[in-house]
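Run log, item B.
One chain of 595 residues. Sequence copied directly from the ordering sheet:
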Amino acid sequence: MDGYVPKSGPEPFHPTRDATSCTEIDCGTPPEVPDGYIIGNYTSRLGGQVHYACKEGFFSGPEDAISSCTALGTWESPKLNCQEIDCGRPPEVPHAVLLGNHSSSLGSVAHYVCQEGFESRQGEITSVCTEKGTWRESTLTCTEIITEINDVSVFDNTCMRWQVNPGRINNQIMYVVYIKGHRADPTESVHEETVNLTTDSGTPEVCLDLYPGTNYTVSISTAPPRRSVPAIIGFQTAEDDLLEDDGIFNISIFNEACLKLNRHSRKVGSEQIYQFKVLGRRWYLNDFYHATSFNLTTREQTSVVCLDLYPATEYTVNITRLRSPEQHSVQIRITTAPAEKQIIGNISIFNETCLRWRRTKTADIEEMYLFHIRGLRWYQKEFAQEMIFNITTSSQASEMCLDLRPGTNYSVSVQALSSALPVVISLTTQITEPPLPEVDFFTVHGGPLPRLKLRTAKEENGPISSYQVLVVPLALQSTFSCDSEGITSFFSNTSDTDGYVAAELLAKDVPDDGMEITVGDRLYYGKYYNAPLKIGNDYCIILRITSEWNKVRRCSCAVWAQVKDSSLTLQQMVGAGLVSMAVVIILTFLSFLAV
């Protein structure tokens, strides 16, 4: 009949005279699919079917994912072909560039930064590689920054001040100041000049070298790529005789660190001595000082001095005219921009969570480093970790160990505050042992083992991959190693002495509220057969939780039950009773035929 084959003889045969008998077809353990796994339970009898699916991070085409047990006692070869998910190059975001290195595997995160003149007002722009093999694009965009220049005013006759909207300035802005001057006689233009000013101040100031007694029209706008609403102001400078006090001078700033000294005296050619005292401080470093002083001797009406200043520093410059009855002084403030070149070099990772780098600037000068750390887990969508902190050091070779969570992809941005360029590095922390299984412990002596409740574990230290039910001799409980890979299936030669895996359930197949499982229910869980316990033996039932990620495997175990002098389960007792009744009926029927 279907599902059986003859044993110990040919067909046809007489059941009472011949030695031939019928044995049920059993195809045994189904074949494995590379990077795939078996879904749910199955039977290895004729007609039994095994359903396959690809593991997390892999996908397949529309191939047949079913293998059937044939009349030959073998399984059909599954045609499922699992390939690793690769999302390719991240999508482009208008007016943004990719930040740092990135991977195209499942769960990878691509970070973007807006180009100069643009900003993302709602937060950071990211794109994530999904299980569909495509990038999940961010809904955030980079919008153009429109700078408004308002409230332009004139002070000290030739100096100008204005307000910038928005007032929050994150980067240096270059302003273009176009000057055009006229006099009543003659009417043609007598002074035309363009001056550039770079600053991050919300209220910029600039002092111009203007002619006395002249009508000026000044236009102020931002330099490309920024856009602005330009501001225009008209005014007249004072006549020269109002400024003819000998010894009076003014100072204007250009190219950030250069000073132009203009003498108001008409005594051209007279020698003058000016004393410069420069003091620089950094608001974020209490012990940082940069002080210098020197004298300038000149006969010129206009002199230029360029100072050797440190980046990202606030300077106060006092200029005093010496050798005069009244020592006229001018004080100006200069804030230098962060350096445009990278000062962090040779950055590397050691001990998994520690960073080491070298500073390209001169040693023994204090520097503050700003750390911005973001952590994501592809297997735990709700997980997000962000840390922002700073450290101060004068060492040229620095090291920093970070407090990071296990099983996490991190993006670490390190920026020296004296530089405008951050360094971004990606690192991945390895998983650690999953939480200990939560089990209701049972001790059974000479009776059936109840159904065991399997509860899901939290993915705190890495993704949970599978749950395994292990059956080992009770005598081996004290020496059992949780991470041992020597335990195989029930059909191995060592199952009686070393134990065996009774069931394996992938984490994605276990409901959130858990499930119940009976040891010895004669079903296949994954590729493992849940065989009945042998009567009269002592066993230890162990639940093992396995976490696998990034080629690292970690396990945690808990003793679920201890069985002494094992007996049949309730399900096995019912099955044995039905078999006994069937034997009695068959014998009675054969006796009747013999009569």
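Observations after the first pass:
- The CA atoms of residues 262 and 269 lie 13 Å apart.
- Residues 570-594 form the longest helix (25 residues).
Flagged for discussion on Thursday.
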